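thread from #wetlab-drylab

HS: before we spend reagent money on co-crystallization trials with S-adenosyl-L-homocysteine, can we at least see a predicted complex? here's what I'd submit
DV: go for it
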Amino acid sequence: MTTLAIVSALLDEQKGLLDQLQQPTQHVRAGRTFWCGQWAGHEVVLVLSKVGKVAAASTTATLIEAFGAERVLFTGVAGGIGDGVKVGDVVVADAFIQHDLDPSPFFPRYEIPLYDRATMACDETLSALLFEAVKSGLPKAGDHFHRDILLEAPGVHRGLIASGDQFVCDPADVNTIRTDLQAAGHQALAVEMEGAAVAQVCFDYGIPFAAMRTISDRADADAHMDFSAFVQQVASPYALAIVSQFMRILPK
Ligand code: SAH
């Protein structure tokens, strides 16, 4: 059976997912706790990557090398930087780019040296399944939360996500990130701190990867406010609803 890894960056993002594991066993390795078990008839391993690209890359390599992960799913939160990407929306990634990578003048800006590319594409089949799971799993969870906490029903987007080792919380920084990416032909919907690293390690190993992020903030001065409350009250139940649906439709 194919082992699926489910990676989250923060404990609050993982809450709810862990409860679904049947016959969980706990393994400590490389400073992480890996939870192995079954979910809806699938072999799964759950782990927290911790925050940032290096932490996420190290976690992903360990997942593959030590825990036999053959597919990787990331669930987490992100700042919305694309037009119309609002708090409470969900973004399914098509591809990732590192907004803080600049190896010029040796390579073009954003290009990953010796990979001959700037973006890392997600697996099409796995991402299509995830998008399907968001569309069918989110409305129920979203309806409940948008009445209590959010003003509008959650939108669903698909596209490029930009990763960098920076919590973006200033409109001027958002503007620079957007403008510079656009100048190189890239339009990012959201900004976060891990996805591009996970995507690159999965690319190295030829492992399918898909990712979803609930938009927790607009990467402005309010971004840090109630961050933890949002993750607990909205992003964590969203992730549970979506991943549960994903597990139901994922081929064995
Ligand atoms: N408050 C947390 C730290 C959050 S770091 C703590 O105390 O532990 C932000 C996390 O959310 C990262 O995993 C990142 O991927 C994501 N994220 C959400 N909004 C972001 C933003 N505006 N900029 C960058 N990362 C963001």
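DV: Strands lie at 3-8, 22-29, 32-39, 42-48, 71-80, 90-98, 119-121, 156-163, 188-192, 209-217.
HS: ok that's useful, forwarding to the group
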